């Protein structure tokens, strides 16, 4: 049995479907559905052996409910992914303590674990974007979400766990099945909604002289690529801390122009004020260094940015979720 926590989420659901495509369906999916009118829908296309709510899973894990021999591996993607979450105690319990529990169980029982860290741990990028375990103590996240991920990375390093588990520093992941993310929905989903409603798109102004409005750069990654990359690390049992990104810094302007093009409309972008609460926590540049990942898994390919946006808009236009439409072979860029 494979356990995937966060399996009803954006990345988790795509990971489960990636394993399903490989013929694996003995999967225990763990998540918290709550009262979301959208999140439960992400389960409909998944082939799984069972589902547990996260609190029940934590209790069963602590009580020794699972026989270690029946678990092939754990992919722990369940966490609060909101970069604006203000309840620090909630983040510590959900992102730090829960991950500690899963990691201790996995290491104790010789079970390979892949878990979700985040590129938010890099903060403003003063120390660069190299996924080197020996340098993580120098990183300074800009928000409590990034700090909660950083705390676990540091804890795992102190215990020597990176010899047997894999951490994934996800870049800005977008794609089908993110309607439940509310304020944390991707810029592409927001663009689709604004462009189809008004024919225009709003982006934040820049507050740094070296970046023109909309020329802030991020490493954006399509969720289908993210899922394949997670499965590569799992299949090859590659321990360590890895960036999971495109390795390309793309401007917001470029990404949004791809959305206009995918929808067959002329680009019309308006720049608006950034809320004061975000200005000191905003990452103006992220770009994952991918040499370590490539060395671990070998050569791989990703969707081009334009084709990824086009593919996502295909789901949005049809009102479909991942698994509802046949996959299309789009032009990929080799890495």
Give a short summary of the structure.
With 335 residues, the chain is an alpha/beta fold. The chain is built from ten helices and 15 strands.
Please provide a written account of the structure.
The protein is of the alpha/beta class. The chain has one domain (about 1-175, about 220-245, about 285-305, about 320-335): 3-Layer(aba) Sandwich (Rossmann fold), CATH 3.40.50. Helix content is about 35%, strand content about 20%. It has ten helices and 15 strands. The protein has helices at about 10-20, 55-60, 90-110, 145-160, 185-200, 225-235, 250-260, 275-280, 290-295, 305-320; strands at about 1-5, 25-30, 50-55, 75, 110-120, 165-170, 170-175, 200-205, 215-220, 220, 240-245, 250, 270, 300-305, 330-335. It has a seven-stranded parallel sheet, with helices on both faces. Helix 3 (about 90-110) packs parallel to helix 4 (about 145-160), helix 5 (about 185-200) crosses helix 7 (about 250-260) and helix 7 (about 250-260) crosses helix 10. The chain is globular, with a radius of gyration of 19 Å. The model has no long low-confidence stretch (mean pLDDT about 95).
CATH superfamily, please?
NAD(P)-binding Rossmann-like Domain
Mean pLDDT: 94
- Quick one: how many beta strands? 15
As a whole number of angstroms, the C-alpha radius of gyration is 19 Å
Q: List the total number of helices.
A: 10
CATH topology: the name is Rossmann fold
- Percent helix among the residues? 25-40%
Tell me what the CATH architecture is.
3-Layer(aba) Sandwich
Strand content: 15-25%
Helix-strand pattern: EHEEHEHEHEEHEEEHEEHEHHEHE
- Count of structural domains: 1
The general outline is globular
């Amino acid at each position: 049995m494979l356990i995937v926590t966060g399996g009803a989420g954006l990345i988790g659901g795509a990971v489960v479907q990636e394993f399903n495509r490989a013929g694996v369906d003995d999967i225990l999916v763990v998540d918290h559905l709550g009262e979301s009118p959208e999140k439960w829908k992400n389960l409909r296309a998944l082939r799984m052996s069972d589902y547990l709510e996260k609190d029940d899973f934590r209790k069963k894990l602590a009580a020794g409910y699972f026989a270690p021999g029946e678990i092939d591996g754990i992919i722990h993607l369940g966490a609060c992914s909101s970069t604006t979450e203000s309840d620090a105690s909630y983040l510590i319990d959900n992102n730090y303590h829960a991950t500690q529990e899963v990691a201790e169980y996995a290491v104790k029982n010789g079970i390979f674990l892949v878990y979700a860290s985040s590129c938010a741990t890099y903060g403003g990028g003063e120390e660069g974007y190299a996924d080197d375990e020996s340098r993580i103590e120098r990183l300074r996240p800009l928000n409590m979400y990034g700090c909660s991920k950083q705390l676990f990375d540091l804890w795992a390093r102190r215990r020597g766990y990176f010899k047997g588990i894999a951490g994934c520093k996800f870049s800005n992941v977008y794609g089908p099945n993110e309607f439940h993310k509310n304020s944390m929905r991707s810029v592409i989903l927001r663009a689709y909604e604004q462009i189809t409603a008004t024919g225009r798109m709003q982006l934040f102004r820049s507050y740094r002289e070296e970046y023109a409005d909309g020329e802030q750069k991020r490493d954006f990654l399509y969720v289908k690529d993210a899922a394949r990359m997670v499965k590569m690390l799992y299949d090859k049992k590659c321990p360590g801390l890895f960036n999971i990104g495109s390795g390309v810094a793309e401007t917001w302007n470029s990404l949004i122009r791809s959305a206009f093009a995918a929808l067959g409309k002329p680009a019309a972008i308006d720049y608006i004020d950034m809320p004061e609460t975000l200005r000191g926590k905003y990452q103006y540049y992220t770009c994952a260094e991918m040499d370590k990942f490539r060395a671990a898994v070998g050569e791989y390919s990703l969707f081009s940015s334009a084709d990824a946006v086009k593919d996502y808009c295909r789901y949005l236009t049809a009102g479909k979720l991942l698994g509802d439409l046949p996959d299309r072979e789009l032009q990929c860029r080799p890495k």
